[in-house]
Amino acid sequence: MTAPVQPESNHPQPKPGSLRTALRYAFLLGTLLFLIVAGVLVFFAAKSGRPIFAPQDNPAGKSFSVKLREYDRAVTAEPESAWLSAEFTAGLIRRLDDLEKDALGVESHLSVLKRRRVLAIHANAGADTATAASAYLAAACRAAERFPYSQLLSAVAAEAAAHSVLSEVPVLRNAPAPVVPPLRGPAAETAIRYAADLTEPGLIPLALSVYVLAGEISDPERAVTIPRSGEFLASVSEFSGERAAGTRFRDWENFLLDAAVIRLLQGDTRGTAVLIQPLINSRADPETAGPAALRALRFGAEFFYDFGDPRRAAEIFSRFSDDRSIGRQADALWLAGQQGPARNLWMVLISPAADGPDRITPSPDLTVPDLLVSDLQVRCLYNLASTEQRFVAERMAQIAAERAASGTPETPEEAFARRTAVTTPEQDADARALVWIERLLSLDRTHLYGLIRYTRFLDSQRALAILETTELAETEPLISLERLRRRMPDWTVDRIIPETWLLLNHSPGAAALYQWAGYYFDYQKHYGDTARLLRAAKNHGIDGPWLTFHQSINLIHDGKYDEGEALLLSLEADSGRSSVQDPVWQIPANIARLMEARRANAAALDYYAIAAAQVKDAACAAKIQYRMARCLRALGRDRESRRILEYGLTLDAENLNIRLELRRLDDMGIF
Fold first, then answer.
1. What's the CA angle centered on 583, arms 582 and 587, to 5 degrees?
2. How many other C-beta atoms lie within 10 A of the C-beta of residue 663?
3. For residue 514, which of 179, 406, 541, 573 sits 20 to 30 Å off, Cα-Cα?
4. Quick one: 133 exposed, middle or buried, by C-beta within 10 A (0-12, 13-18, 19+)?
5. Where are the alpha helices (DSSP H) in 558-653?
6. How far apart are CA 304 and CA 309, in angstroms?
7. Which helix or strand (DSSP H or E) is residue 455 part of?
């Protein structure tokens, strides 16, 4: 019998093998999910230090907050006398240890640490001081290590380390001024390690307090080595307004001033200027400012005086009314190019007050104010004497430039009258400078630089007589040097150099003598003596940029051009970061000579321009103009070269190289 035919279905029937495959995949996926969830639970259990399920000894499964309330009730239920018991303190420490095991996050750890701190402070009056303080420090360090990115836990750890030291000293509760010991040993290292991580503004005072307690800020040399010491001090100064407690942060100027000093010692002059600006703006009137603000304001003035902004320094000094500040203002004005106002202030300072005790009769032939004896006025007299000739020369040049610009040049009659006059402006300047020097020496006959400047107005015999009989002759090496310089016109170079070495051997520690000898040896091209001089200077501990300069000249003379150029470039870079000093034009000039020798005329021209802006001597300035003209000729800029030569001829009419070069340009038809 034939079996009935089954109707065909529209859906395919699953194969037995495919069903088993699907079940296998589902089982594997479920197993994988179970392992992942179990791993996460185990990880968090190990991280928190508590079991996944409630332990058998805590059937009720009390929460962390419930345990905290129970701890607080246990503490408040005991009388105050119980805090003096070591057993009671130890019991509270054990309960806090159990609470720490249940703490999961930063907030819960802070809750436990707050109670540990209260216990450590109260136990400080009891018999078990070290136990509570050490337990507080250990717990704070554990929490900070567990959550290394928490600023609050790091702050608590730093404070706990400081408290562990303070708790070792018995402090009477009623003592008016308890002695705070400095942080020392491992506790100090721990406190500093965690304080260094604090960057939030509200925690900066705590970090600074830790450094102060550790003695890191008391010594400037140590404070400079702290990477963020200046930042700490500057950040504290931001609390000059109202604080959360309603009290003002006092003496914030002192903190900002200390931060500026540290920045300055670290060589960050730009950062120092940024910190000084709020000090200057905070107290515009010294009459109403406090001592801290006055110190800060004066520091700002001295900073700008020493680091390149004398005009700003003069403005700040002008806010003070004392004679010392007026003298500093005059000095700053002179450095800023304000010769007239500077000399007027010096004149004011040497004028006596209405009731001045000591007076000196002025010279009958020159208008010189009456003088009052004081160290400040002696300095002002020397400044007036040393700037007289330069002031007159620059004033004459200014008048000539104004007349040339107005189109009214000097007529031949005026030129003849000027040349044939009995006294010229230069002679009048010399006579006036001599008067200032004589007044100075009448007040202080042992003024070293005044005596030297005075002898330069005299002939050689009179000058030598004064230099040999002065009481400074045996004690001041500069007097011996001045005697040597006055004899140089009558001696040959072969005699001057041995005499120079005798002078150096007699005063081996006088850096000024070594510096002068170095320039003289190089000028006479006695480079062997220069090499000996450099070695002797280093043996006697003498150092300075001039040593590097002469070393570079020696290297260039020996054919080591690259090494010599590297030293000169380093000096040129350092000169831009140094304080206000007379620039050394020889450095860029020698760099330019090396560039010119390598036919890098454009670069040489730039360095010659720097040297031309720094040089003061007219003859040397003319030589630089001649070298600049040569570079311009090499670059094909003949007309500019001629203008440079014509300007150089006005500086030194006796320069033969400039005259020959101008004649050569005339022959070439370049006008």
1. 150
2. 10
3. 573
4. buried
5. 561-575, 586-597, 601-614, 618-634, 638-651
6. 5
7. helix 448-455
